[in-house]
Amino acid sequence: MAKGDLCVTRVPIFQGLTHQQQLHVAEFIRPLSVRRGEPVYTPGDSVSRLLVVHSGQLKVSHLAANGQEQVLRTVTEGDVVGERAFLSGHRPNDLLLALEDSQMCVFNHADLSNLIRDYPEISQQMLQTLSDRLASVERQLVAITSSDVTARVAAYLLDLTSAGRGRIPTVRLPMAKKEIATYLGTTPETLSRRLAELSASGTIQLQGRRDVLVLDLDALERLAMPQ
Amino acid sequence: MAKGDLCVTRVPIFQGLTHQQQLHVAEFIRPLSVRRGEPVYTPGDSVSRLLVVHSGQLKVSHLAANGQEQVLRTVTEGDVVGERAFLSGHRPNDLLLALEDSQMCVFNHADLSNLIRDYPEISQQMLQTLSDRLASVERQLVAITSSDVTARVAAYLLDLTSAGRGRIPTVRLPMAKKEIATYLGTTPETLSRRLAELSASGTIQLQGRRDVLVLDLDALERLAMPQ
DNA sequence: GGAACTCCTTGACGTAGGTCAAGTTTGCGC
DNA sequence: GCGCAAACTTGACCTACGTCAAGGAGTTCC
Question: What region holds the HTH crp-type domain (chains A, B) (predicted)?
Fold first, then answer.
């Protein structure tokens, strides 16, 4: 119950409901655990469920015809995945894979459809969520076409910094650099070089493989600006 | 009434309603005409209305901080614009501008909110629409990062060809090449060169400034494939 | 705790495509 | 129609970034 509770109360899409209603919703949750490295679904799977991340971290990525991977986004606690397949009934053309051991809350199609019928507020919140996602992808698109890699890396680091509130300028990279590179529309080699430059200029400091210490926030912000 | 009727009956988001209900919805429509070249809204405008295109064609684009324009999509009859500002109440950070003289149907925030409360089916359809848009932007993103300009141009022409049903392989470009270039994540110069190459290889034939005759669909399809 | 990964970094190199600049065409307004 | 401005094309050049390759550094799994 604790799990279901968390998924229902902390997730934006059920925010519009009363506590009573949230409890009702929670009854339909089925838990799902995935180990790091395991896929939740792969392109073409006939899934039609809505997934809410309860704990852990996963990546959503698109596989091009040539097998090339493009990371579209990462999701963590409270994020929702699978609306598209859920709404359209189409098979997903993307891939959801656990970056760490993760727990998810699953709603199957029939259950959630009924819930939505009973509680139209859920659609409202889903609209909001989708609309934010859309804005975010559009921002990513504009960034990739109109800034160079240095600017994108800087913006990405700023993003991570602000996500981890508390003025602690140490950020932990959520994925391997290889994957971050595809998310930023570049290659591991180029990403590595740009990070090395930022490090050389004293803007950041690389600590091990996964951690970055931000030394000069202002400089990062200046770099993140187009030209 | 004819206008309102068209906007309401032909648009996906009102598709779930009965004819009776559609008539009710139509009462809240306010018409809006724009001349070619005129903006409907610009970044920062305090609009909070939902717009449905009744006739004509417009472009939605994003202006980067340096003034650089990135066309996000074009919209025509039946397409919906402004959901994001409508849903979030935020000011838009994009720009809607008429490519031809166009007519739109406008819903103000209060009216549509009420309608949605009365007819939850509207949210359902909006979800569907947004979800399709999201998929489309993600596709665009993947295309820009994983194919070269030739492939993107080929894919774009194929897109236009299939949109204009009827096996007539003549497509009319919806925008100036300058703008198409930004949509494809490139520059007018490069687009011009790639079109010239396609023309030289006998795949297409350029007719005037705006029309392209597709001579070899198969070749285009081959080029549109990644590598 | 060591072997064997995989991940990452660095170097050298080639090139697609961006930029700048100068013509050419086209369509629009008057 | 005429003239002008915007749109487009073509050329020359350059550079950011991708690719290929080889050497290190961390992890993970027995």
Answer: 147-218
Say how far apart CA A87 and CA A72 lie, in whole Å: 19
- CATH class given for the domain over A144-224: mainly alpha
B184-193 pLDDT, tens digit each: 999 999 999 9
Q: What is the pLDDT of residue B205?
A: 93
Pick the CATH number of A2-130 from 3.40.50.1000, 3.20.140.10, 2.60.120.10, 3.40.50.300: 2.60.120.10
**A109/A47 Cα distance (integer angstroms):** 9
pLDDT by residue (tens digit) across A203-221?
A: 999 998 899 999 999 999 9
Per-residue pLDDT, A98: 93
Asked if B182 and B152 count as a contact pair (C-beta separation under 8 A), the reply is: no
Distances (CA, A) of B10 to B7, B79, B101, B213: 6, 9, 20, 30
B134 chain-A contacts, CB cut-off 8 A: 84, 130, 133-134, 137
**Is domain B147-224 given the CATH code 1.10.10.10 in the classification?**
yes
CATH 1.10.10.10-classified regions of chain A? 144-224
